[in-house]
Design a protein that fits this description.
Elements lengths: L2 H11 L28 E4 L6 E6 L5 H5 L2 E8 L7 E9 L6 E6 L7 E8 L2 E2 L3 E4 L11 E6 L10 H8 L4 E4 L28 H12 L2 H9 L2 E3 L20 H18 L20 E5 L3 E5 L21 E2 L17 H14 L8 E5 L14 E2 L7 H14 L4 E5 L5 E7 L9 E7 L11 H9 L4 E5 L4 E7 L3 E9 L9 E10 L6 E2 L1
Parallel strand pairs: 9-10, 10-11, 13-15, 15-17, 17-19
Antiparallel strand pairs: 1-2, 2-5, 3-4, 3-6, 6-7, 6-8, 9-21, 12-13, 14-16, 18-19, 18-20, 21-22, 22-23, 23-24
Helix pairs in contact: 3-5, 4-6, 7-8
């Protein structure tokens, strides 16, 4: 199916239609269960050649219903009318997991699109569309990959998701900050919309926050259009937290907060049961993992929150990580400091080594992580401590891994900073003329504000010739068209994030040719 045919199909399927019932937190007079238990939509994720995860979460109206488990039926079919059912079964939506459902459907054919749906009583969910990946030994001819992050509810409508659906990707990578923990600010000037939820501090709070986001019809449409692979950043718990440390001086209180955020993340994402790592529930989630698109692309999805060291020279009671002058903060250069943790660093090193193996080498090694990887020299001499710039030794170890194993093509994807950056990734980040090892595309936000100006970003770019593009002023997503011969990234930006019906345009397009590290303007 061509992208044009797929766009027409999506329009016929009506996946951009709004949910037919208000979510639970917005009801003043709760309707009965028959209203729409699937008002939060459906999703799929973590595809493999023979399997995929199917997800939904029930919206239940009455206390008795909310306290009981429910048996949900599911079907997978070749066609949208479900005349050719491939598999079907049942799953339990338990109150212990927020009435979420994670079905791992196995025994599917590789490199094929499927349709799926859920049923509870007489209620039938929206029909979702998902797919499996090519077989591991196949050099697939193409992959259309979308990447996005950072979707604060108040800062903008989700028009970007509507346009992403029309662009018909095979896979969406979501790179963190799916929700924001904040309450609506008192000053609502310039906001696209507001909500009445309090600052998230409990499991119920986090569940309501995900339900709020998932009530958006454009986001629902994007989840229903194709499989996703998701990772988290800080706002799924608390701004700028690091491993087991957050703001304030009460480790137990922060541990409870983090466990609540992590449980809600699992409940609301299409993750496999293998993510449930750790001896104690919600003390660890296995978020870093690999997805393989045959031999065309190997996607290493990273977790840059769970294992990182505390930000250099940061006081525990501060609201955010801030920035430091290296001369005033010797801790910044400590070689023992890590962003990924020792185990994940070794895991990634082994993956990059496998990518470059002579037999069946991977064409494109993709490192999907949370933020901007490339180093920046700043006119102010201040260095932000919550990005890779705050962990220079850890960044150098990853650069050394890429240089040592020399995968055929390495591309880093990121988000977090609410700006579009395109960079050449150099062996020595701060030395002009240093060999280029990889290409980087750090995407802007779906809706979250940038918090900086073009003049400030231009001043940074002038000090960093490896930065080919830096734009903080628009919101949207990245679209990567990948073939054996070329990687093409198109940066898509909405015209006005304050309008739900905003148009979209292409801000820039860059290409990376097979065997030639570093992007070039198309």
């Amino acid at each position: 199916m061509t992208p044009h045919q797929r766009r027409a199909f999506l329009q016929r399927a009506g996946w951009a239609a709004a949910a037919t019932a208000l979510p639970r937190w917005a009801w003043s007079n709760p309707p009965t269960l028959q209203a729409n238990p699937f008002a939060l939509g459906v999703a799929s994720g973590d595809p493999a050649p023979d399997s995929v995860v199917l997800w939904t979460r029930l919206v239940l109206a009455e206390p008795a219903q909310m306290q009981a488990p429910h048996t949900v039926r599911w079907e997978v079919a070749h066609d949208v009318r479900f005349a050719q059912i491939v598999q079907k079964g049942q799953a339990t939506a338990s109150p212990d997991l927020g009435h979420s459902v994670h079905v791992e459907v196995a025994g599917l054919s590789p490199d094929r699109w499927y349709h799926y749906r859920f049923m509870l009583g007489d209620a039938v969910s929206t029909t979702g569309r998902t797919r499996t990946t090519p077989a591991a030994d196949v050099l697939a001819p193409r992959l259309r990959l979308a990447f996005a992050s950072c979707q604060r509810w108040e800062h903008g409508h989700y028009a970007a998701w509507r346009h992403l659906v029309a662009d018909a990707p095979d896979l969406v990578l979501f790179l963190g900050d799916y929700i924001y923990e904040y309450a609506t600010p008192r000053n609502t000037e310039g906001l696209a919309r507001t909500h009445s939820l309090r600052h998230a501090s409990s499991l119920a709070d986090f569940r309501d926050r995900y339900a709020l986001h998932r009530s958006d019809p454009h986001l629902q449409a994007a989840h229903a259009a194709c499989p996703w692979a998701v990772t988290w950043d800080d706002h799924e718990v608390q701004n700028d937290y690091a491993a087991d440390t957050g703001r304030g001086g009460d480790p137990k209180a922060f541990g409870n907060l983090r466990s609540a955020g992590w449980q809600a993340f699992y409940e609301n994402m299409p993750l496999r049961a293998a993510s449930l790592a750790g001896a104690q529930p919600w003390q660890a989630l296995q978020v870093y993992r690999r997805l393989r698109w045959g031999r065309l692309a190997h996607i290493h999805v990273l977790d840059a929150r769970q294992y990182r060291g505390w930000q250099a020279c940061r006081q525990p009671d501060t609201t955010g990580a801030g920035a430091v002058r290296p001369a005033d903060c010797p801790t910044l250069a400590d070689p023992a400091r890590t962003l990924l943790g020792t185990a994940q660093e070794r895991w990634l090193d082994a993956g990059l080594a496998a990518d470059s193996a002579a037999a069946g080498a991977t064409r494109w090694s993709v490192i999907a992580q949370q933020t901007l990887f490339s180093a920046r020299q700043y006119p102010s001499s201040l260095v932000p401590t919550d990005s890779w710039d705050g962990y220079p030794a850890a960044r150098q170890r990853l650069l050394q891994s890429v240089a040592t194993h020399a995968p055929r093509n390495t591309v880093l994807l990121g988000g977090d900073i609410h700006q579009n950056y395109v960079c050449r990734v150099q062996a020595d980040p701060l030395r002009t003329g240093s060999p280029v090892l990889a290409s980087e595309f750090c995407g802007t936000s779906i809706s979250s504000r940038a918090g900086t100006t073009q003049d400030k970003v231009d001043a940074i770019a002038r000090h960093n010739p490896h930065v080919l593009l830096a734009r903080p002023d628009q919101r949207g997503y990245g679209l990567a068209d990948v073939t054996p011969a070329r990687w093409t990234t198109t940066l898509r930006v909405v015209d006005d994030p304050l309008r739900a019906g905003s148009g979209v345009s292409t801000q820039a397009r860059f290409v990376v040719d097979d065997g030639h590290a570093g992007p070039m303007a198309a």
